[in-house]
Amino acid sequence: MNQKNSQSGLKRLLEILLVSTRLGLTSFGGPTAHLGYFHEEYVRRRKWMDEKSYADLVALAQFLPGPASSQVGIGIGVMRAGVLGGLVSFIGFTLPSVIALILFALLLEGFDIGNAGWIHGLKIVAVVVVAHAILGMSKNLTPDLKRKTIALFALVSTLLWQTAFTQVGVILIAALFGFLLYKQHKENAEWSSTFPIAKSVSIICLLLFFALLFLLPIIREVTGSYWVALFDSFYRSGSLVFGGGHVVLPLLEQELVPNGWVSEEAFLAGYGATQAVPGPLFTFAAYLGAVMKGWQGGLVATIAVFLPAFLLILGALPFWDALRSNPKIKGAIMGVNAAVVGILISALYHPIWTSSILAPADFALAAILFSMLVYWKLPPWMIVVSGAIGGTLLTFL
């Protein structure tokens, strides 16, 4: 029986690794687009979780500092196969872009790839994927006028005030309105998700997160070690980021450029390269680490910048499940879920739409790709390939 369970567990881990690696190879367009790819793969196609569980996981990731899409991916892996499943899901989704960016740093640094036609095509793919995700999520999460109004509030606020703290403030206000408007709300169907993590493990993860945050700067000063300093800089940057991967860029620049670890030119060249690869934007750390200390530096920087996200999501998941199952909290979660729809629509317009749909031909390509995904039901990887080819062809028009 134990052997059968262990084979079943191994099979699940292998399945998570294969699916997450494919997503890591094909998910272009930043965190909002990644949430669209995850929704398509894990909720629509594989049905590993229902719409509400997915929306709640996204809401939790929005609350926590760190890369939201990576935290959602880790959470899905945890729900599927425990802590090891979360680790495997993270590795599969992150490793392709880490390898690509370390290679960029070692071999291709200085090449101008930021304006290539195929990259523009991949940005248009991001428009299509996010639009499709919003259509699916809005149907379930904003079915009545009150929640549509909350989504509108989130949309307008995040468009007009684009700061790192606006998103967190909007979510807190939406939670308050949801609590007030829906505290008497009763759902016909009960729903729940299982997070196979002991609360003792979660508490250890949270304690470790804060211990590293406060102790690493002290160890850095005491030892004077270059490697500890490198780890501390990237760990602190990963710990303090609210509002998505783009916010980590100024933090990393302040940490690295004034110290002379990375030149301004190398920093900006790496940012261009990061836009060209799939996966989370936080893998920019792999490029920077490789510029500083070769491939070993790339790996250390990657672990350091993602470790806070991993510790926080593992630490918060079991308590989040208990909170969202509380009848008094359900209304607040409904408000937050509605706000997430508004935030996604806001991100669809800016920066995704404004940086991608620049001419009528771009919109035409987006319409074709949308039809391929929604009506012809072609797999996402085929949309990605078609988008890259289409973007290349647009340069000849």
From TrEMBL:
This is Chromate transporter. The chain crosses the membrane at residues 83-106, 118-138, 150-181, 201-219, 226-248, 268-290, 297-320, 332-350, 357-375. It comes from the Bacteria. It comes from Sporosarcina soli. It holds the Pfam family Chromate_transp. It is a multi-pass membrane protein. Keywords: Cell membrane, Membrane, Transmembrane, Transmembrane helix. Belongs to the chromate ion transporter (CHR) (TC 2.A.51) family. The keyword Translocase does not apply. The keyword DNA repair does not apply. It is found in: Cell membrane. InterPro entries: Chr_Tranpt_l_chain, Chromate_transpt. Coiled coil: none annotated.
